[in-house]
Amino acid sequence: MIMALSEEVNKLAKYLMVSDIPRSVAYTLVYIKDKGEITSVEIERETGLRQPEVSIAMQWLRRKGWIVKRNMKKEGKGRPIHGYKLSKDFNEILEEIINDREKKIEEINNTINQLKTFQK
């Protein structure tokens, strides 16, 4: 259950999901886009995502090279705290997503054209 996010943020997240971005990644990305460094606890609290969803989203985003992770000091015991922030401008990330979608469209069109050559 996603809460506390504006209509525009929810709309952007939905477009990202249609673009083959996993749900938890989409909501994490739109939440972090206008922030500086944040923790996974903040993401959980503000998006309504559960801890495992945020953890998987962060791994996905790190593999894409879209966020960086920093170990933060923590008092006492418990899970270590990590700070996360975008590694590049959000518009650059959107451009990568758009380029990926355009390549997918091109592949689909090529496949359609190849299939048409088999029509009698």
Automatic annotation (TrEMBL):
MF term (GO), any: DNA-binding transcription factor activity
Highest taxon of source: Archaea
Pfam families: MarR_2 (PF12802)
Family annotation (InterPro entries): HTH_MarR-typ (IPR000835), UCP037373_trxn_reg (IPR017185), WH-like_DNA-bd_sf (IPR036388), WH_DNA-bd_sf (IPR036390)
Chain ranges of the HTH marR-type domain: 19-70
Protein name in UniProt: ArsR family transcriptional regulator
